[in-house]
């Protein structure tokens, strides 16, 4: 439960810090409009989707798969993964407004299963904007 409170607190701090700033602009790539989604590889896609949908109230936008190339190099050429890697399922969830979260469940002969810490390369966290941090924490805690 502490991780929920920590994520909501980080989001609240970010909102306060950004409160007086000018709207962000993308001045780099011509035509860049913003961030669409972030992909996360999870060990159990049903459990991950259940958390986002039932505990947080996100909506499943789409789900599809599997993808594999049993004899060729499609997976290595397109995704820079082991040629025998399999994406069992991809589920995209939308959590209110903003960018989406794309959940992947892979298996691969060379797959690492150690979860990185936030300080490790590849570590990550997700933060959400909420109107009432206590109400958001209470809601997610009750449903987790």
As residue ranges, the low-confidence spans are 1-10
Task: Write down the domain tally.
Answer: 1
Q: Which structural class do the helices and strands define?
A: alpha+beta
How much of the sequence lies in strands comes to: 15-25%
The CATH first-level class comes to Alpha Beta
Envelope shape:
globular
Q: How would a textbook summarize the main sheet?
A: 4 strands, mixed
CATH architecture annotation name: Roll
Q: What's the SSE blueprint?
A:
Blueprint lengths: L1 H17 L18 E5 L3 H11 L3 E6 L9 H6 L6 E9 L5 E8 L25 H11 L1
Parallel strand pairs: 1-4
Antiparallel strand pairs: 2-3, 3-4
How would you describe the overall organization of this protein?
- This protein is an alpha+beta fold and 144 residues long.
- It has one domain: 2,3-Dihydroxybiphenyl 1,2-Dioxygenase, domain 1, CATH 3.10.180.
- It is built from 4 helices and 4 strands, in the order H-E-H-E-H-E-E-H.
- The protein has helices at 2-18, 45-55, 74-79, 133-143, and strands spanning 37-41, 59-64, 86-94, 100-107.
- A 4-stranded mixed beta sheet has the order 1-4-3-2, covered by helices on one side.
- A hairpin with a 5-residue loop joins strand 3 and strand 4.
- The chain is globular, with a radius of gyration of 18 Å.
- The model is unreliable at 1-10 (pLDDT under 50).
